[in-house]
Amino acid sequence: MMQNRRLICWMSVLFLLVVVASSAFGQTPKYIILFIGDGMGPNHRILAEKVSQAKGLGKLEMNHLPVRGEAKTNNVQNGTTDSAASATAIACGVKTNNGWLGMKPDETTVDSFVVDAKKAGWKVGIITTDALNGATPAGFYAHVKSRHAADEILAQAAKSGVDFFGGPRFNSNKLDVDKTLREGGYDIVKGKIASDPMPKLPCANLQMGSMAETLQSALRLLENPTGFFIMVESSHIDGCSHGNRFPGAMSATIEMNDAVRVALDFLKKHPEDTLIVTTADHECGGLKIVNANRNPGGLLNVKDPDEVEKIIANDIVGMKPTPGELITNITEGMGLEAVSEKDRTILIDLYQKDKIKGSGGLVNEVKRLMYEQAGILWTTGGHTPANVPTTAAGAGSEAFQGTYENTHIADAIRAYIRQSTKPQASAR
Asked: Which residues neighbour 347 within 8 Å (Cβ) at sequence distance 6 or greater?
């Protein structure tokens, strides 16, 4: 234990030296954009790029940022984290219990670096594709022992000082969302934000468009000479991965990259002042690449599990085909290559025994073939303890090299925010 503490101490000292050195060369950012792919592991990023290229959409820029690192995602018990514990680590710099937000394991509250940003005079934006009082966004402003305390988190959001909330909704059990936000001083805009007239800050942009569009709105609203911090979460990667919904997980990852492109355009305009960081809170689904040499175009044939069940159980089996017709209909309906004789026997046997749904049924066997022929495999429907890639570009990005605890992300950003308030080198 003592050796671990010494190691952490030395790592902290080393990091502070990096921050000071970066500042000396005019590399302290004042515009920081942090992207979090909820549930996005390393293979999500690799496969989403293959899917994007197969669709003619090009590479994922977030996979090719100049600085690469790797974040450990374990919670305070060294177990598999949930989004709440991970958000607390990334935003506040402490490990905590699953389900807890902005609180240490001893039940004392801990502020995120959003508080430091506001003290430094920065503007703050929080963007997500799901509920704005969900676990990941709430980790940046809330203090509760249950991520499911929607009303309490909503009330804290209204008093958080966050300048811009962008997302589909706030969840609520009993509170009136609009009333609660307006009492906190928020101008509520439902739908896309027009360029003129711009809403006043603080602003809650509900029923948002795409991540990229919402980030563009946030950049217009929050850009100022002092600085800003924006967190952008792609939440549906996690939801789709829980259900092993490959197409949805890939689409959500690609959507996140669309928003990264917006941030990179901003970086080009402010190269000495902007830091972009992309990471994840944890991996979900245990997504594996079984055969990396498969034709990337084959990934486009992978269907959602519900669609597979509909095609097999309703459209194909419902037509009562002969065994020969069954195999033809399955391969054509699923876009599969020719199946082996062994697999033909298995499929026909399950069909004739009327074992269609459920574990070991025809639907699951077709799913297995679908994933096998795409060269991928889901190993779980839950979270895993895998490390997640972190990539970065811009001012101060060198702080995100190497392998580190996810708390390092909070430490790095907090240090840069605090450093930004100090006099900069004359070379700046």
From this structure: 326, 327, 330, 339, 362, 365, 366
